[in-house]
Each structure stands twice: as C-alpha cells, then as structure tokens.
Amino acid sequence: NVTVSQVKTQTIEETATYTGELKASESTSVSVKVSGVVESVYCEIGDYVNAGDILLQIDRTDYLTQYNQANTAYLSVLSQSKALIDSAQIEYNNAKINCDNQKVLYDNGAISKIAYDSAVTRFENAKINLNSAKEQSDLNSARAALDAAENSLGYTTVYAPISGYISTKNTNVGQMASPGVEIFSIKNTSTVNAQLNVAESVIPKVSVGAKAIVNVKSID
Q1: Band of pLDDT at residue 137, cut at 50, 70 and 90
Q2: SS in 3 state form for 67-132?
C-alpha cells in the first residue's frame, strides 16, 4: 500500500532521557558554638521548623556562672574607673581655671613667665591624666571579657538558621555537644532542583528556557 501525504513544514522535537537526583533548593548543617551537655531537644527528623525556632538547649549552668563573674568584675572595674575619672576631671577643671587666671595676670604683667609656664604645665598634665583615666585598658579588658561571656551564654540556645524540614538529627538529651560537629541538617524543599549528567554530545543543544519534563517515580 502506498500512502501519499502533502509536504509541509513542521517542528521536529528531539528528546533525550536521563536519570538524576532531586535536591533541596536550600540546605544547611547546624552545629553548636559552645560545648556542653544537651539539656533539651525540640525537634525530630521530619519536623518542619521556621528560621529562628529553637532547636536545642545546652545546659547553661557553667556559662551563666561565668557571665555573672564577668559582670561582677566589670561593674567593680567600672566603679573604680568612674571614681578615677571623676577625680581626674576635678583636677583638670581646677587646673584649667587656674591656667586661664594665670594667663590674664601674665598678660597684664602681674606674674612672671615662670609662674605662668608652671600653670600651663599643670593644666597639660591634668589633661593627660584625664585622657589616660578615660582610656583604661583594665576597663576595656573587663568589657571584652563580659561580652565574651554573654556571647557564650547566648550560644547555649541553638536556633534554626533557615526554614525547612529536619533531615538528620545526631544528638539526644544528655549527650555532649561539641563545636563543629553536625547535630542537625535542615532542607528547604519548598522548591527543588533536578541535577543530572548529560552526554557531551547533547550539551550544545541545551539552553536556558528549554523545556524539560521531570518524572518522580515515588509520586507517580
């Protein structure tokens, strides 16, 4: 049998089939920043968490003690520093008033240059002492120690950095958590990416916007 068809122009689609892997558009590994015994765990594998939700709590006892000690030390140094600054400020104010008065007397020829220079020297020394009192290293060190203790205390509570599903959980209540060791992984599957390897000969034919059909056997 012979079939006759009229010649016409049409688009011929070329397709290629590959297997690949679906990956979450966003994923992250969660670990602690300070070591300690796990006191509470607030999620399990498969749970959905929002960014900012509490995932885990480390025992705060030691870190709270360190913070209280650092805060007490800082307040003590701050009190001493304030007293030193107040004393230096009074000395500075008196020296400035005296220096101004001595300048008036010197300009009017009532005192010698030596007397005026002595007042200027006293004022400059008082200024140096005041600046030194305001820039005490002990106060800066105490503040740095308090900030470090406050940060460590805050790190005992672990929060979800992104929204998504808990895909792995590697800790339980009573276990020791250590920095750098993954305790959770979170995957955001609101959108997913299909990753596959294609033959080299097909690469020139692949372009942004090309149509692709994805079949997932587990949900067919």
Answers
A1: low
A2: HHHHHHHHHHHHHHHHHHHHHHHHHHHHHHHHHHHHHHHHHCCCCCHHHHHHHHHHHHHHHHHHHH
